[in-house]
Structures are given as C-alpha cells and as structure tokens.
C-alpha cells in the first residue's frame, strides 16, 4: 500500500556546497540518499515530493560538515499481509517462483500455486496447467495475495499465494 | 427450560473430547493416579447435580478427593465447570483460631481434626452450561478450521528442512536460500539441498515424489475431516437442538443456595443455611427454584392486557407491575402513574384497536379492578407523601375546583370528612374503578376515561387532605 507521509532526516553537507545553491544541493543529496531505500517501519521510499523545512545547520567540530534537519514529504510503499498485488515473475524453480512488485520481492512457494499447475523444467522453467492454457514463467505478470511479510530494519520480503479466487496470471508474455 | 438437552450435550462432549484425557501428565502413572475415563464419569455425575461440594461428590463417586480435584481443576481450565471456594467451620463448630486460616489450603475430609476446630475451605463445583455450549462450539470450530486450512494450504507458510543437519527454514527465508548455481534452496550451514517439509498433521511419509506425498496428505486430511463430521454428528445435532433453548443458569453458589433453601422451605424441609444439606438434598432435583421465577413471570401476565396497551401506545415505557411498587419507589411509581394517564388519554382520543383490546379483557375484569385499585391506592399514597409539606392553604385551593367541577364527588367528600376515613376511601375507590369497566362500550369508554382520570387525581388529593386532617 502507498502512503504519502512526512519524514525527517539529518543531512550532512560538505562545506564545498555552501553558497547560493546550498538548498538545491541539499535537496538533491536528500533524493539521492533516501529514494529507493527501505525502512522496516515505513516501507520503501518511492519518491520525495517536496521539502517542508530545512532547519538550522550545525557545524560539526573538526570536519566542517554541517548537519541540517530536513523535513520532507515522500511517497512510501509498504506491503501488508492480505494485500493483493500485481507482480512480475523474476524466477521460477521447483520450489515455487519469485516475483517483484516494484521494489518488493515476493516468493510464492509451490504449495501455494494451484494444484492443477505443474512444474516444467527446461531452459524456461515454468508452471503450467495440464491443458497448457495457463503458464507461469519468467516475465509473466501475476496477481497474488501476500500472506506473510518479513520486515527487517532495512528490507522487506513477502511470501504470497496465487491459490485463491481471481489470483494468478493476468497476462501471458508468450501470447502477446 | 429443561436441563435435559444440556445434560445430553455435556455427556456427548465428554465422550467426544474428554474420554481419553489423562490429567497430570507430568506425574508418574501409578495405578491410583491413572484417571483415564474419570473425566466422563465426573461430568456425568455433575449433570445429575447442581452445585455440589467436592467432598460429597468424591464420596459419591468413590474417588479420592485429590484425584477428583485434579479432574475438576482441569475442567475449570477447560471452562466447563465453575468452582467456588469458601471457608466454613466444620460441622457445629464455632468460628475460632486465626491459626486455622493457615490450613485453608484445599478442602479436607471433615474428620481430620475433631479436637481442633478449624476453618476448612470447602470447594463447590457446578456445570456452567452457558459456557459449555460456547466452549464446545468453539472447539469444533477450531478443529474444522485447522483441518480446512491444512487442506487448502491457506495462509500456511511452507517450511523447509535440511536433510543433513536438520535445520529448518520457512518460505520467508527463501531469498537467502536460493543459490545461484542451481534453482533450488540450499542450507546456509552445510549447503545441503533443502526439502519442503510435509505436513504436521498427516503422517510424515518422506516424500520421494513430492506431488504424490502432497496428494496422499490431502486425502488423509479429507478423510480425517469426513470422519470428524460423522463422529461429531450427534454432538452437532445436540448443539443445534440446544441453540434456541434458554440455558439453565444456577448462578453463583450463594444465589443458588438462597434459591435452593427457599425452595426447600417451601417443600417443608427447613434447611436454612447448611450448604451440605442443601447440596445433598436438592442435588438430584432439577431446578428446584423454578417455581418462583414462574410466579414472577405469571404476575405481569395477569395484567398483561394493560401492559400491552401501554407498550403499544406509550412505546417502550417500562411499566412496573403493581406488586413491585413499594413506598420507597417514588420516581418509578410516579412515572408509571403518568404513563397510565397518558395512555388512557391517547385511548380516549380514539383508536378503535385500543378499545377493542379493552373489550377483550372483560373476562379479566376482576383482576383489572384489583390491579387498578392497587395502583390507584399507591398513587394516592405517593401523592400524599409529596404533599405532606404543603400546608393547609393547598387544601382550600384544591377543595374549590372539585366542588365546582363535580358536585357529587365533593358532597361525598364532605360527608366523608366527618365519617371514618377508611370507609370513605374504599367506597370512592371502588366506585371509581367500576366506572370504566361497566362503561366498556366503545363510545362511553373514552368519555369515561377522560372524566375519570382527573377525577381520580382530585379524589386522591381529597383523600390526602382527609389524611392530613385526621
């Protein structure tokens, strides 16, 4: 699920950036530092949409670096248990398949794949129904439900299922 | 409101769930502490009793009291049984010795110390039918849910196990476990290839063909589910049967004792407070105090017609039955009086249905009269109390309108002032009561009521004045 929230961060700026463009430097550094990171609490920071305030800088003894407290708005993405996501399959093996929904990785184990789909090994491993009408392989798009998340300080990993109504392949790359 | 279906429920669930319970698994199983099957016996015995002292129960069942207590504690944990512990003196003993308080741990067989008079803690137990019903339903629900979840693999996180070192992983570790060389999971310890762990419930037939094992497991689960359905069918049926019945409630030990002893006195047995007597005496008879509650239900039924009318017109106003109204209840009785008058006014304004209702109550005339009499009487009492403070001046002010409005009544009153109060009052009340009943036809009824009600109040005031003067 996406959230638009306000976060705060202490930014350290090298003295060489001091000058007219200090603010721009600060914001671009913030974007470089923050976007794409993941915190267990808020999820993945997708994009910074604005900077609310930049506090007073504090010169650090000895280095000359200056620390600015910065408040910024950003879009974060945090997966939740029970959430339905659309994801792209990245890897298929006999244990199941991995998929990505944006920054988050999801593993679907083979017992959470419908029973009528069987693993086919080969140079393009896939899960296929017996009549061959539905096939899950690399780059397939699937709709899945998250049934478990592991949230660490800096990463989030999910396991999902496609063994439910309206879940499964939503487009077949080979058919296109 | 019979206990019987609930007893059947208890017996069924005892046999279904507690048949092979051996409580106290940590203890070595000697012949004596082996209490397999005891659970069923105890529950059955409890269905034939209400609150019972555990010692008595132990004696009846020829069990050691400790053994019984252990079983009962288990049932208490299972929420089938409520227990109560109470300190009591041994038979005929007077309360004595603070040191005895130290021995209050657990109940003892009464003969232990005759010379030392002690406070014993006696434990009582009773089936908690309401909770049993919920517990059994919840248990069945959980059983089914577990099996179904297993069957459909819903929300279950696959576990993996390393056959070499026995280390376990689950699907959440998948990202770390996947190896670059081949497409399977490898143990972080020994780099052995992990295998998916087959189910916990079904037998662990090490799956050579993974799919095969899965299929077999599914069949097993399905079979288990089916067998469960079949075997628990009588229990489910009993649950359904019991669903709409009112659940027998024995209340707390104290409440039950009060009821039981009251019923006992009614039956001629004068065991007032002796719990052992009461528990033995009425252990077998189902719900001895039910009669009382029935009486309570019946009394409002006697004037039920009136209550109905009121609940139709003045919606949801709680009307106290007249026998409940005592002198202390100023507010409620006042409320009731107002409601009564209002509803009568509404009736007067003309709903045919209402008067029809009234008509249909002709058989109950006598009861109605009596009830109304009681009501009016207490109303009068109440008003008197309220007007105790207001002095003589109010008398005059209230005298004048009555004499103006209803000369007959006022004359009565004046006569009554000289004569004895009680007779006067009685006469008035009877007259007033009979009037609406006799004039029961549709047209008269409204008029009568409208006239009568204010009359009544004025009359009451008059009565009050009489009282004051007397």
UniProtKB/TrEMBL annotation, chain A:
Domain RNA polymerase Rpb7-like N-terminal positions: 8-64
InterPro entries: NA-bd_OB-fold, RNA_pol_Rpb7-like_N_sf, Rpb7-like, Rpb7-like_N, S1_domain
Keywords for the protein's UniProt record, in alphabetical order: DNA-directed RNA polymerase, Nucleus, Transcription
GO molecular function, one term: single-stranded DNA binding
Superkingdom, taxonomy of origin: Eukaryota
Gene3D superfamilies (alphabetical): Nucleic acid-binding proteins, RNA polymerase Rpb7-like, N-terminal domain
Domain S1 motif per the UniProt entry, residue ranges: 79-156
GO biological process: positive regulation of nuclear-transcribed mRNA poly(A) tail shortening; positive regulation of translational initiation; transcription initiation at RNA polymerase II promoter
GO CC aspect terms: P-body; RNA polymerase II, core complex
Subcellular location: Nucleus
CDD domains cross-referenced by the UniProt entry: RNAP_II_Rpb7_N, S1_RNAPII_Rpb7
Pfam family, any one: SHS2_Rpb7-N
Similarity field: Belongs to the eukaryotic RPB7/RPC8 RNA polymerase subunit family.
Function, as annotated: DNA-dependent RNA polymerase which catalyzes the transcription of DNA into RNA using the four ribonucleoside triphosphates as substrates.
Name the record gives this protein: DNA-directed RNA polymerase subunit
Originating species: Acer yangbiense
UniProtKB/TrEMBL annotation, chain B:
GO cellular component, one term: transcription factor TFIIE complex
Composition bias, Basic and acidic residues: 354-370, 385-395
Comp. bias (Polar residues): 396-414
Superkingdom to which the source organism belongs: Eukaryota
Signal peptide annotation: none
Entry keyword set: Transcription, Transcription regulation
Keyword Repeat: no
Pfam families named among the record's database cross-references: TFIIE_alpha
Residue spans of biased composition, Acidic residues class: 424-434, 455-470
GO process terms (BP): transcription initiation at RNA polymerase II promoter
Positions of the UniProt region annotated as Disordered: 264-289, 332-370, 385-470
Gene3D superfamilies cross-referenced by the UniProt entry: Zinc/RING finger domain, C3HC4 (zinc finger)
Key word Transcription present: yes
PANTHER family noted in UniProt: GENERAL TRANSCRIPTION FACTOR IIE SUBUNIT 1, TRANSCRIPTION INITIATION FACTOR IIE, ALPHA SUBUNIT
Family: Belongs to the TFIIE alpha subunit family.
Name of the protein in question: HTH TFE/IIEalpha-type domain-containing protein
């Amino acid at each position: 699920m996406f959230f638009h929230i306000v976060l705060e961060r202490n930014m350290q700026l090298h003295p060489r950036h001091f000058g007219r463009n200090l603010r721009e430097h600060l914001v671009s550094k913030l974007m470089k530092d923050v976007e794409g990171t993941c915190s267990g609490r808020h999820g993945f920071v997708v994009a910074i949409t604005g900077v609310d305030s930049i506090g007073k800088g504090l010169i650090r003894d000895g280095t000359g670096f200056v620390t600015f407290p910065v408040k910024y708005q950003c879009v974060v993405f945090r997966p939740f248990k029970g959430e339905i996501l659309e994801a792209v399959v990245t890897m298929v093996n006999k244990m199941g398949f991995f998929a990505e929904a944006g920054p988050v990785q999801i593993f679907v184990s083979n017992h959470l794949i419908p029973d009528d789909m069987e693993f086919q090994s080969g140079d393009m491993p896939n899960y296929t129904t017996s009549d061959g009408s539905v096939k899950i392989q690399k780059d397939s798009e699937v709709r899945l439900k998250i049934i478990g998340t592991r949230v660490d300080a800096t990463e989030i990993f999910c396991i999902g299922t496609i063994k439910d109504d309206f879940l499964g392949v939503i487009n077949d790359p080979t058919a296109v | 409101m019979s206990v019987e279906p609930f007893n059947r429920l208890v017996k069924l669930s005892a046999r279904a769930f507690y048949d092979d319970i051996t409580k106290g698994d940590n203890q070595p199983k000697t012949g004596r502490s082996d209490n397999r099957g005891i659970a069923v016996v105890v529950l059955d015995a409890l269905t034939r009793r209400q609150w019972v002292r555990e010692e008595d129960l132990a004696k009846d069942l020829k069990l050691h009291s400790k053994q019984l207590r252990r079983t009962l504690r288990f049932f208490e944990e299972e929420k089938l049984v409520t227990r109560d512990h109470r300190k009591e003196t041994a038979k005929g003993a007077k309360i004595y010795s603070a040191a005895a308080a130290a021995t209050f741990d657990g109940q003892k067989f009464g003969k232990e110390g005759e010379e030392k008079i002690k406070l014993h803690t006696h434990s009582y137990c009773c089936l908690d039918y309401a909770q049993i019903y919920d517990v059994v339903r919840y248990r069945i629900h959980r059983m089914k849910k577990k099996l179904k979840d297993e069957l459909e693999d819903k929300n279950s996180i696959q576990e993996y196990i390393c056959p070499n070192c026995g280390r376990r992983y689950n699907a959440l570790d998948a990202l770390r476990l996947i190896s670059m060389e081949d497409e399977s999971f490898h143990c972080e310890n020994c780099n052995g290839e992990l295998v998916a762990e087959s189910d916990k419930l079904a037998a662990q037939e090490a799956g050579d063909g993974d799919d095969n094992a899965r299929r077999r497991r599914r069949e097993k689960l399905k079979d288990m589910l089916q067998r469960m359905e079949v075997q628990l069918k009588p229990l489910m049926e009993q649950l359904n049967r019991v669903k709409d019945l009112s659940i027998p409630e024995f209340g707390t030990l104290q409440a039950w004792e009060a009821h039981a002893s009251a019923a006992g006195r009614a039956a001629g047995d004068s065991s007032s407070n002796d719990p052992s007597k009461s528990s033995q005496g009425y252990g077998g008879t189902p719900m001895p105090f039910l009669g009382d509650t029935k009486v309570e239900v019946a009394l409002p039924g006697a004037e039920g017609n009136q209550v109905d009318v009121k609940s139709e017109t003045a919606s949801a106003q709680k009307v106290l039955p007249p026998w409940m109204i005592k002198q202390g209840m100023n507010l409620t009785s006042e409320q009731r009086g107002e409601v009564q008058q209002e509803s009568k006014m509404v009736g007067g304004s003309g709903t045919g249905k209402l008067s029809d209702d009234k008509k249909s109550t002709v058989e109950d005339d006598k009861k109605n009269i009596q009830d109304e009499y009681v009501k009016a009487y207490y109303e009068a009492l109440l008003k008197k109390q309220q007007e105790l403070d207001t002095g003589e001046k109010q008398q005059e002010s209230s005298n004048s309108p009555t004499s103006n409005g209803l000369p007959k009544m006022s004359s009565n009153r004046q006569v009554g002032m000289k004569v004895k109060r009680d007779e006067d009052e009685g006469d008035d009340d009877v007259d007033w009561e009979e009037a609406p009943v006799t004039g029961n036809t549709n047209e008269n009824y409204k008029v009568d009521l409208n006239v009568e009600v204010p009359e009544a109040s004025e009359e009451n005031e008059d009565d009050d004045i009489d009282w004051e003067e007397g």
